[in-house]
Specification:
globular, eight-stranded mixed β-sheet, homodimer, OB fold (Dihydrolipoamide Acetyltransferase, E2P), about 25% helix, Gyrase A, domain 2, six-stranded antiparallel β-sheet, BirA Bifunctional Protein, domain 2
Chain lengths: ~600, ~600
């Protein structure tokens, strides 16, 4: 036996007990003829006391940082206690020690605040993983996992495994493919989600299914995207949207309670997709702060069939405004005294390519009630007052105005709002504001085909199994005429991050075929690609729906961080390589040849 | 809301309650002017009663098998109760019903004993999965999952995810490879196990790790092998073999208690690999019955360095025996009166190619104490008596004798023993006999290289990270001279099935290099292939070891079955295709080309 106790559990009640500990040397501190060693493991740190004789032994058998040792001795009371650590009232009077393994000097310090840069820490991930931050993060990830499972279990969900080696589906452009030696020239695909399998499980009567499961996408790695990611994947039969929202609101509350001791006192607010786009310019609004978007000019029917046109900027012979499809404003509180320099910086910020605006207008709402704008040449104070009223601006606010094409301008203002939120410290790390965004559009127009060319086409916004709003089914026949058609689809948004999303599914064969038709997939093609699902729908498919939550994102949010990488033990780096194993690797051409890959060149 | 209750929960206490149920129509039974419908879901079956008026409605809106319906009504007491089902005391007096989805007539009956053949049931797996047997199996699988997690959690293990897209390792011959679009011409591999990652987690100080995780092998599908399979994967730091055996004996007992309400009263017996091979001819002996192998002739040092030579068959001028390297017998109880025909059948059985023997000898131990053999020509009764004594044979036993090359003959006798065990009903489905097999060989000689040719070489029997017995380390330098070298490696065997295996790992860089050397891998190659692990060993790797249990096999064993396929929701069929999605599929050559696969032909 290597140890009688771990490094985090000894207390005053153990005084005089003979113990053996094992762990890593955190520090060695010599004071004259005696030595103190901090011994570390996952559970904590315990101080070892080496007397004069043992300190002499240390000269022959020295200890260094990260050495792995075993130490025998007796628990004694510490003379100078350390209230900062749980074992701080005791120490071990060492009688003998063994070096189990030496360590070279680590390339960076294994401490909360390390001196190692990002790249170095990624290269030596096994050392970075020893740091308290990473240890806490992986423990948190495990606790979230447990908490989710306990809730799902109590709610009668079965964890049912679905295959990883599957047939490629039409979203195939992003599929990883896996050649099979046993089926020469043929390939599996890795699943982007267990979507079809969980629907089949509902058809098979499993009623409530969940998995915490890896999914795969062969995409470029944007910030916080990994080619493999983990999903809390769920499906329920005989449910309506309301049942699902309640179930997973319950899950979210349960996990926050378990892992952070935090209560959400009230029900999560709900907002339609149209409203979210209108008020925040974004389908995943950060509602920790207000500063909502206020339209000054908009065409009719921009987001849904109820949308009316508005124009509070016309008639001033100002070409920028007259040409603009869409004009939108926010009122930044307490910013009316922004300097020229600050305003120029903001203007540069919106002109960056990733934002793409040509300029920024402003109206200062001075403390004395007067208004002063960058467009005074065109608009008198009465007109500016109309804008200020529209924004419910207060004296001291700075109204920022963007004008341009609707989609781009809305997105730009959404970004500007978040940027102002950051500047003003309104996006607090320890504040959590969940939101259900509902009634997502069923379809969206893709300008290009998957191969990057072509005339564009209507695609499923969520996926082709999502049910349209029952009273809008007839609109599916002509999406160009009825682009507003909405689905029973919903996202769970937390602090501006999309944590998860789902939908009520189509469960009738006829409606599914109608959906494929709207997507330009005829019955023959549908049969070929989705025959198994259409087949299953012939034998009594129940109404069903589900949700998938991004496990990596949820963990990072619970940890109060924006990057998921610190919550994954072995993430990929920015080029998709494993942080340590340096995958992917080149494969020997001979080995490929054995796989009988046939390529027509 | 689709239902107020499920189909398994209504009881007498609910009588008079208004309820709404939803589910599948199991049966429709018309009696004159009224009708009874059994409604089924995951939770049970509830009888619906349709009165005269509603029975008339059924003519216009008929119900058939597997229709999905919703029924409103009132709970009433049944006049003829059904004690066989939990809801058998009540029924629902239906006031209205809705057909949610129709069903074609299923291709086989959705019942315990179905009329559907294997192939048909695989094709319509979503219907097969509705059968009570499969529903029970998948529920059992889920309960095993929960039970394992609860134990591991209580023991302080963290569930830590390891990557699926990794660098190919030297066992690479069996790796599935995954081309990456983002890294043209390069490939990931799918892990055969998280072995290296879990060792790195030990180096990182996570102390106790587990996962229930998919693993992948691109191999031919023998009975009960799937290209993707699920493993309970564990690793512990600062442990010796004893700690690991105790921990996982505890897990096994816990799961059997949870899932089957079964107690193993005593500690699991342990047997060295050498002893298992000697007594059962097999490293995963089924110890539910005796009929142990008794050697009549064996060379010295067949299995370990203590093995002495023996010859109880020589000096009779019987060439078969004199030429044989190895002669072994079993005594089949109560079989002394086997007929000529039965004996011929057994002889044919051992002559089958997969057994590969040239013949079978026997000695009948008659009830009167006399002996009668098929080799009377060569051996007198005194000599046969020696064999009978060696076998501790009783009157009424039939001694079966095989002679030939040691390895093949031992294996053949092991198979013959199991066959006789089957014939005699000694392998009981509901009896569980666990066994630890320990002290496995460190190395084994592979006759061929991976590519099927070459001169053969020494390979790691478990894997190259397994620690040799400390007192045998020096033998590693010359495996040809010391083939007996044993490892701290162990298997958990249950009823003749290897449920899991593991080992104490090497954690010192020098010893790991020595191991690679024994396997013919020089330091340069080792650095290239395992640099990350050797690197990690430089920074304070703790002693560690672990175990992996076959989750699919464990579930099948707990269910009392031999085939794992009925415990996996969506297994592959014999040619590796998904039972429903018919994966793998052919990939468009153009798509492959986009992946920039380079093949030298």
């Amino acid at each position: 036996m290597y140890r009688t106790h771990n490094c985090g559990e000894l207390r005053e009640q153990h005084i005089n007990a003979p113990v053996t500990l094992a762990g890593w040397v955190q520090t060695v501190r010599k004071f004259g003829s005696i030595t103190f060693v901090d011994l570390r493991d996952r559970y904590g740190i315990t101080q070892l006391y080496f007397n004069e004789a043992l300190t002499q032994q240390l000269d022959e058998k020295p200890l260094g940082r990260e050495f792995v040792i075993q130490a025998e001795g007796k628990v004694i009371e510490r003379t100078s206690k350390n209230a900062k650590i749980a074992t701080g009232n005791i120490e071990i009077e060492v009688s003998a020690y063994t070096v189990l393994n030496k360590s070279s000097v680590p390339p960076f310090t294994i401490e909360e605040e390390t001196d190692g840069g990002e790249e170095l820490r990624m290269k030596y991930r096994y050392l970075d993983l020893r740091r308290p931050t990473l240890q806490r993060n992986l423990e948190l990830r495990y606790r979230v996992n447990r908490s989710v499972r306990n809730y799902m279990d109590a709610q009668g969900f079965y964890d049912i495994e679905t295959p990883f080696l599957i047939k490629s589906t039409p979203e195939g452009a992003r599929d990883f493919i896996v050649p099979s030696r046993m089926n020469g020239g043929q390939f599996y695909a890795l699943p982007q989600s267990p979507q079809t399998f969980k629907q089949l499980l509902m058809v098979s009567g499993y009623d409530r299914y969940y998995q915490i499961v890896k999914c795969f996408r062969d995409e470029d790695l944007r910030a916080d995207r990994q080619p493999e990611f983990t999903q809390i994947d769920c499906e329920m039969a005989f449910v309506e949207q309301e049942d699902i929202l309640n179930m997973f609101e319950g899950l979210t509350k349960h996990v926050f309670r378990d892992v952070k001791g935090m209560e959400f006192a009230t029900a999560f607010p709900r907002m339609t997709w149209s409203e979210a786009m209108k008020r925040y310019g974004n389908d995943k609004p950060d509602i920790r702060f207000g500063m909502e978007l206020k339209e000054l000019k908009t065409p009719a029917g921009a987001l849904d069939e109820h949308d009316e046109s508005l124009d509070l900027v016309g008639g001033a012979a100002f070409k920028v405004m007259d040409d603009a499809e869409y004009v939108v404003a926010i009122a930044a509180p307490g910013c009316s005294e922004y300097t020229r320099k600050q305003l120029d910086e903001l203007t540069d910020w919106v002109k960056r390519p990733q934002i793409g605006m040509t300029g920024l207008m402003y109206v200062k709402c001075n403390a004395d009630g007067s208004l002063k704008s960058s467009v005074d040449k065109f608009y008198d104070e009465a007109r500016l007052r109309v804008w200020a009223d529209q924004c419910a601006a207060q004296p001291g606010d700075l109204i920022l105005v963007l004008a341009g094409p609707a989609e781009r301008t809305r997105k730009a203002m959404s970004e500007l709002r978040l940027e102002m939120g950051n500047k003003l410290g309104l996006r607090k790390r320890d504040e959590y504001k969940p939101l259900w965004v509902i009634d997502f559009p069923l379809l969206e127009f893709a300008e290009n085909n998957d191969d990057g060319g072509g005339a564009g086409r209507w695609v499923a916004r969520h996926h082709p199994f999502t049910a349209p709003k029952p009273d809008q089914i007839s609109w599916m026949q002509d999406p160009a005429r009825y682009p507003y058609i909405k689905a029973n689809a919903y996202d769970l948004v937390l602090n501006g991050t999309e944590v998860g999303g789902g939908s009520i599914r189509i469960y009738q064969r006829d409606l599914q075929l109608k959906m494929f038709e709207a997507l330009g997939i005829d019955e023959h093609e549908a049969q070929e690609k989705f025959g198994f699902l259409l087949g299953a729908f012939e034998y009594g498919a129940p109404p069903h729906g589900g949700l998938a939550l991004g496990f990596d994102r949820l963990c990072a949010l619970l940890g109060g961080d924006e990057t998921i990488r610190d919550y994954i033990a072995f993430p990929k780096n920015n080029s998709g390589r494993d942080v340590m194993l340096d995958a992917p690797s080149a494969v020997n051409p001979v080995q490929l040849d054995e796989l009988q890959l046939k390529i027509v060149e």
